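Dear all,

This email documents one entry for the complex benchmark we are building for the journal club exercise. For each entry we list the sequence lines for every component of the assembly. Then comes the predicted three-dimensional structure of the complex as a token string, followed by one or two observations. Please use this as the template for your own entries, and keep the labels exactly as they appear.
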Amino acid sequence: MIRVRALSKEFGMRDNGAGVLALSDIDFEVNDNEFVTIIGPSGCGKTTLLRIIAGLIPYDQGEVAIDGRAVTGPGPERAVVFQNFALLPWADVLANITFGLEVRGTPMDECQDTARHLIKLVGLEGFEKRLPKELSGGMQQRVGLARALAVNPRILLMDEPFGALDEQTRRLLQEQLLLLWEEQRKTVVFVTHSMDEAVMLGDRVMLMTPRPGRVKEMIDVPLQRPRSPQVEKSSAFVEIKEYLWENLRAMQVGES
Amino acid sequence: MKQQAIAKAAGKSSATPTVGKFRILRRFARENAPEVLALLGGAALWEFLGWSLGLQWLPPFSKVMEALAQFVGSGVILANLGSSLRGLIVGFSLALILGLVLGSLMGRYRHVEKALDIYVHALFVCPSIVFAPVFFAIFGLSDMARIAIIVVYAMFVMVINTATAIRTVDPSLVEMARSFGCGEAQIFGRILLPAALPLVFAGIRLGVGRAVKGMINGEMLIAFVGLGALAQRYGAQFDAAKVFAIAMVVLIIGLVSNALVQMLDNRLTRWAG
């Protein structure tokens, strides 16, 4: 379980002592095997929050704990999928996927076995020897996902993973992620700026407000699992999306 | 860039199995026609001017080649070449190691960069030859003196380039590595160095060129051995053909060492092309 209590984070102390308050008094929990999506306008600190949970940046006040243990840095139970994929441009698909295993000293043949299994799982067969620049954006993020899954984390932290992809690719990857999640039921925290994506994927949607970033509301998504793309036509889906839009609209009106 | 593209094209084509001897020659002629023509044209112009102007400092190209042939035949060049190359290899290797280590530290750690930047840039801009008397005083007429000269000639451009290369590595790659639990040593070995390699090689190429310059200057000014000393001696005798012949040898050393670095670069950083 991920528990965040009274979390605050300030950025860039200026000379006059004034920093920018990125996150203020954040409180929420993510249960084991739960899929929580985080949505909010830009500047609401959703990516900052994810990076804090990942242990990539420190926080100023409050508490961030995983299974009761305070987060002080990255840990083997967590893996991150990045918005810009963050693939090694000199390494082929196979080597990119085994990166996390290799740095933890896993024997080479074990790395290869895991990677081959994941390559099949994310549909990259035949592309093992390709370099990232020879792949489409969608395929690159499949590599990013496979690399995260390779270290078999209990918690998957996804930072707008499909944000850089075109609409069609994004929907295909969403469907694949849903299938994968049904199989593995990992705990997922998924940051997005797409309302469709937030509702389609999440068990709950966390709505954040900007400047400073706060949790506005946790919204339950009472849609049945496994979810098919058809779910978008259900009244519950449309209602929640409408509700998100009303809120996001109110936040962004006057700012754009 | 163009050279690289040609080298790459050539590398690719040699992989095709059914290339006959003449097709290789023909392809070479086609791909390198501008270079070959430029060299032939330059030699012809040199020959013409040499004969028609009759200047003492501009002997015709054929006379220079004649002097070169004599040098090679008598073994003079070979003896001095060995001495020069030893200095070059040792000096350049030291400069390379120092350049990579200092450059990496400066590129990664802001405090190191702030502390060393002023020195590195000052020494880079300063004509390295002003250190010749200092090294002469320290090391005397030894190999160490000319090796030290080569090091100061070649090192700083590699420090600066390596620092820039490391500093400009995509920070998201470093963050990715940290998310998988990489420590500083792994971040260096698995992310920063490989990512910086293309730019580091650009610096190494400049460094090699400067090392050759340092070799000759050092030999001419402090340690009177090697090709530089030879050039110095014939220069004092106003024997232009022999001086040009030595310059040719130096030119070839420069071109060959540059080609070696280029080859290594092409092998190691193919991904960046």
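Observations: Chain B touches chain A at residues 170, 172-173, 175-182, 186, 190-191, 194-195, 197, 269, 271-272 (CB under 8 Å). The radius of gyration of chain B is 22 Å.
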